[in-house]
Write a structure and sequence with these properties.
alpha+beta; elongated; two-stranded antiparallel ribbon; 58% strand; 8-stranded antiparallel beta sheet
Length: 156
């Protein structure tokens, strides 16, 4: 009986050690704080915190101030990423893609979408892009407008 109990305990210990080691490797550790991002001549800040968002404790990203992106047709049009003012959950891989629909009314109707994408590294850096795709309507004429800005960010 004692031999069976000893074998059962050792078997449980052998199974428990690899499982806990695998869990430790599966949880990435990103450096939290304020990242300073630069896209062309535009600079903005990205906040990464370990906090409660999306209903649970996890890495949460927010943009303290809206980030502008515009494209040029006969006129310059654009908008700013608004959805990320409140913290949103970052995936376990350190990536986030946020889509935002935009539309403006008369005198010149505009409709389209904006996309903010980012990927963090464990070294305190991140890369990403801002994209805009709009359509301007002048009567029956529809003019497409799109732009993409890539950015890099580093923990301050």
């Amino acid at each position: 009986m004692r031999r069976i109990l000893l074998v059962a305990l050792l078997g449980t210990a052998v199974v428990a050690v690899p499982t806990s080691t695998a869990e430790a490797k599966a949880k990435p550790t990103f450096k939290v704080g304020t990242y300073k991002a630069k896209a062309g001549t535009q600079e903005f800040k990205i906040s990464l915190k370990h906090a409660k968002c999306g209903g649970r404790l996890q890495f949460c990203l927010s943009l303290p101030k809206p980030v502008m992106i515009e494209c040029t047709t006969p006129t310059s049009v654009g908008g700013s990423i608004q959805n990320l003012a409140k913290p949103v959950a970052l995936s376990r891989t350190g990536k986030l893609t946020d889509h935002q629909s935009i539309s403006y009314g008369p005198p010149i109707p505009l409709a389209g979408k904006m996309t903010f994408s980012i990927a963090f590294t464990k070294k305190g850096t991140a890369t990403g892009s801002l994209q805009i795709a709009l359509s301007e309507t002048f009567g029956t004429l529809v003019i497409p407008c799109s732009a993409k800005m890539r950015f890099t960010a580093k923990l301050k």
